[in-house]
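RETRY 2/3 - previous attempt timed out on the joint model. Re-submitting the same 614-residue input unchanged.
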Amino acid sequence: MVTSAYVPGAAQALLRRVYGYAAFRGPQEAIIQHVTAGGDAFVLMPTGGGKSLCYQLPAMLRPGVGIVVSPLIALMQDQVTALKALGVRAAMLNSALTGAQRRAVKAQLRTGELDLLYMAPERLMLEDTLEMLADCPLALFAIDEAHCVSQWGHDFRPEYLQLSALHERFPGIPRMALTATADAPTRREIVERLHLQDARIFVSSFDRPNIRYRIVLKDSPRQQLHRFITAEHPGDAGIVYCLSRKKTEEIAGWLLEQGLVALPYHAGLDARTRERHQERFLREDGVIMVATIAFGMGIDKPDVRFVAHLDLPKSIEAYYQETGRAGRDGLPADAWMAYGLADVAIHRQMIAGSEADDLHKRLEHRKLTVLLGLCETAGCRRQVLLQYFGDELPAPCGNCDTCLTPVETWDGTLAARKALYVVRQTRQLFGVGHLTDVLRGHDTEKVRKFRHQHLSAFGNGLELSEREWASVFRQLVAAGLLSVDMEHHGSLKLTAESVQVLQNTRMVSLRKDPLPARSTPARKKAARAEAAARLGNDPASNELFELLRAARRELAALHKVPPYVIFHDKTLLEMAELRPLSREQLRGISGVGERKLEEYGDAFLAVIEQYVRE
Ligand code: ADP
Ligand code: ZN
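RETRY 2/3 succeeded.
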């Protein structure tokens, strides 16, 4: 077994020299210390927390090559490109390489010229590969996206199961598992399947404080989305999630008509088209990807400024993972969702109609109910989210919609009883529209046809408007006090729990829905100014930032890499604010390491110099 002592100065120096960062973040240093000294580790850190450094540095500090297990070629590609740009000796082995390229990588491996080698689990566990590795000094194994080993979680990949044999084949080589998804059952399963019982566990807070969560009521979703993007994210890269393939194409087409740069992405598109769209999303500035959940895993793009959901995801884990793709660079980002009663109905129906067994269906229903709790909460959204991951936030966050514009609640017990009564009196056969007509005493054709004007419920709900009744019904469905029958035109049915309300043994607290925002030019301008202020730039720095971005675009095209491989937005923002005029000053900017200073420093200094002179 190769042992090596951890020299604090050495890790710090590499962080500085290679990455251009001044200090470690959170538990990074402790993890690096532990693994460099030969320990196993289980690292739970939210997206953007800085997991990669936790295995990259020990791989460089220890003798031998670090083997990184990654589920997707795109992900490996991204990491290797970024590492090479930093001057790190990294490579990957996968089917995207030609035979000659693969032979070259293997030669580098044999002669000890690599610090990091990325591959998929199925390739690693091939007998050939294992034998080849047995002949090389190995620094460590890092299993990235380790939740893929869990059948309980939502990204299960059977190939990951083979990794359980690693500890027998290579005893004494430190193993790390890293993931950003980890509710307790997934966590237990990872430890068990990867034999990490003796590993030290490093848990960071799952909070993503730079993401602003917002859930609005769906009324005209396209317009709402368009208003949100044009008012708050003009020219920004973002992802819009939709449930169906067809809808991604419709929405992308519609956004395009509105003059935005939007592309669809779903599993039904042919591989070439998908690749081309992904490529544009990564390489161009400000592309909006309208996608199903087929898109996202392994997308390391740091400057996604917003993630919008036009349809409800299926669980809090899914919501958190999808929204987590925003703002990996730590700069302010938005998670925005439009949600309505139909979403609930569609999901319940999908679960009911699925092939899964009863236990599984119950589990899925429960997950959906927890997510609806998030949608309907009058409290801080972040507190609800973090609590789900066992991570208590002691005070409201101040950066979600309910914190920024507090929602009023009211005692809806009586209204709930009236709503449930009218459902019962009309024999559970009708949807929200007709039920509201009955409550409000409207003389409609349908009312007369079914003689509902004679019911005691008729006209018994004049104190609330139609909008308010719709809100009551929606919240009752979300709370499981009513269910929607999609087979029968969305008719509402009582549930096992309804009786508690009907018998007056259960109180119902409801939220007052805020009125839909109408955009006026003034409001749009204010939103834009607020968005800019959140990024922390004054107009002058903003101007310089745009010039630096343009320079970055040119360099990226020249070197055929995504712009963020040259420098992250965060680094450009700091340049625009501090305006360094010499290489020495530029070295002080976060994200400027030696290799990048050498390679790109002068190009950016020239832009700053010219701007300052003019
Ligand atoms: P994860 O894999 O956990 O999602 P990454 O490893 O991609 O996160 O890191 C997220 C971003 O934070 C990257 O841009 C990375 O370069 C940056 N980063 C990581 N560690 C530090 C640090 N100590 N100081 C400054 N930036 C950091
Ligand atoms: Zn909050």
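The chain is about 45% helix and 15% strand. Closing ticket.
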